[in-house]
């Protein structure tokens, strides 16, 4: 494999040479991919998913070190901690290129891996959103038994242990990827299971985006209350009229106004359809149900530990939690979109652009006869 000249000086000097297994994998994988591009809607070859998962795992390992540094987290021996972590950063970079991933890393991933320790900038930390994407790739590869609910994350320790990839040992990348490289290797995942998880991802991604519309409507009504000097909706003019007028004042596009005005009815219908189609398991108050764990001080007097988990409507979460759930749904749907060739390149900038993988989003798709 010919490494690009833009990589670290040590790479250019030949210190980080790809292993023989990595060279063999590169030649074989190129031969396999020349058999034709995957058809949209079908899974890419398993080895491609494994290569992408390996890239993400190393980038996220680096992300963890940079995040700890940015937060000021230090080990017990503070004086030696920076040196130890700098060596860990070097080991991650070495593994990425000596492990033969140079041709599979994105330009952004190469860029951040090449940076010196503790020099990451704000935009670089956005790569941390790929934790949930890595979880999906591992589920597709059979390394995760299930996809967690869309109001909780994959267990990060489990994600790192599942592949057996160790950043300090490039040969572990060979072991992981080569287990999926045989031309006879195939996915154990059945089409029905894949379709169901894609349907679920689409539904929760739709719900996250709908919350933005709901928040906009609430903001418009709140501003109307402030202008009128009233704290009650009933004390101001017809709510729909107010929403209409203020949307015109804010120059909100005509195509969006109907959605803002009717979001409550749309949400009721979407929730009903999602339950009927068994895309979501629980609903409450005409909204997607979210299971939350109460803090000890929030527990009713005399309640048992089993009562700590309660079901609440999605809309009742705090804004920061809405943001967290949106990121979970976007990252998972993004991984499904790439894995099924809905999108060709792994480009984090495309994450927010993906609305659905099915021709029509799962909630609104016609019922199958």
Automatic annotation (TrEMBL):
Protein known as: Uncharacterized protein
Species annotation: Mycoemilia scoparia
